[in-house]
Amino acid sequence: MNAVGDRAAPLAGRTALVTGGSRGIGLGISRLFAELGANVLIVSRREPSLTEAVRTITEAGVDPGAVAYRVGRADSEEDADASVALAVERFGSLDILVNNAATNPYFGPLTGIGRSQADKTLGVNLWGPLRWIQAAWEQYLRDHGGAVLNISSTSGTAVDPGLGWYGTGKAGLIHLTRQLAMELAPGVRVNAISPGLIKTDMSRALWENGEEELAATMPLARLGTPRDIAEAAAFLCSGAAAWVTGQTLTVDGGYLVRPSS
């Protein structure tokens, strides 16, 4: 049984592919989806972190056969095609695609960013999700339907010091979500989540030396965890959201609606 204990398995019988799924938000999503009954293929760039991710998930009580991994880059056309093919070959379907992989090689004002940093950011954070959606559409979703979830950011809707180019790409991802929700309907639902500040290694520089102060600025008085995003992802990718498409769900502890100082 894929579900842990007696917990319901709303994703039972479905296959999910999660890019950047070996740590942080991606690992949280991969683990919860497996707990909820899905077969999960985790894709990331580093094999050691992938094997560790699979180990931690299966040690939580998930059927080891329900979780697999593949080394791949989020901005690689070849890796997208090969990973989708592996998911279909291994599990017989690809019902859910989660585009979680992201990068942010530059922190600072837009006037200081270089071309290579700008290209890398958009290559992974904007072109990457589109390319993986193309691969999933061509190999499975067009004929069978399914759900796509893009992980954006509150930086895509709000101004953040130092995160201007990262936010520009995430804003593009929100528009891409809406556009593809229209283009791939009615068989494929496409939604996004905009996380606020989540305690992950990628965001460590933003919270490590001031977590309590940051938490105090939020209505819910704490930073987010990967599990917070995973729970929202499970809803949007399950039958409970069968009439939801083209939407971006903000999960930020109320940060964007906090009183202005």
Please tell me about this protein's structure.
This is NAD(P)-dependent dehydrogenase (Short-subunit alcohol dehydrogenase family). Pfam families: adh_short_C2. Keywords: Oxidoreductase. The chain is of the alpha/beta class and 261 residues long. It has a single domain (15-251), classed as Rossmann fold (3-Layer(aba) Sandwich), CATH 3.40.50. It has helices spanning 24-35, 47-59, 77-91, 115-144, 164-183, 204-207, 211-216, 226-237; strands at 15-19, 39-44, 67-71, 96-99, 146-151, 188-195, 248-251. Strands 3-2-1-4-5-6-7 form a seven-stranded parallel beta sheet, with helices on both faces. Helix 1 (24-35) crosses helix 8. The longest helix is centred in the middle third of the chain and has 30 residues, at 115-144. The protein starts with 14 loop residues before the first strand and ends in a 10-residue tail after the last strand. The model is unreliable at 1-6 (pLDDT under 50).
Order of helices and strands: EHEHEHEHEHEHHHE
Work out the count of structural domains. 1
Helix content bin: 40-55%
Rg, rounded, reads 18 Å
State the low-pLDDT regions, or none: 1-6
Strand % is 5-15%
Strand ordering within the main sheet? 3-2-1-4-5-6-7
The CATH class assignment is Alpha Beta
Shape annotation: globular
Overall mean pLDDT score? Answer: 93
CATH superfamily: NAD(P)-binding Rossmann-like Domain
Do you know the CATH topology? Rossmann fold
Number of strands: 7
The biggest beta sheet is recorded as: 7 strands, parallel
Family: Belongs to the short-chain dehydrogenases/reductases (SDR) family.
Protein name: NAD(P)-dependent dehydrogenase (Short-subunit alcohol dehydrogenase family)
Keywords: Oxidoreductase
GO molecular function, one term: oxidoreductase activity
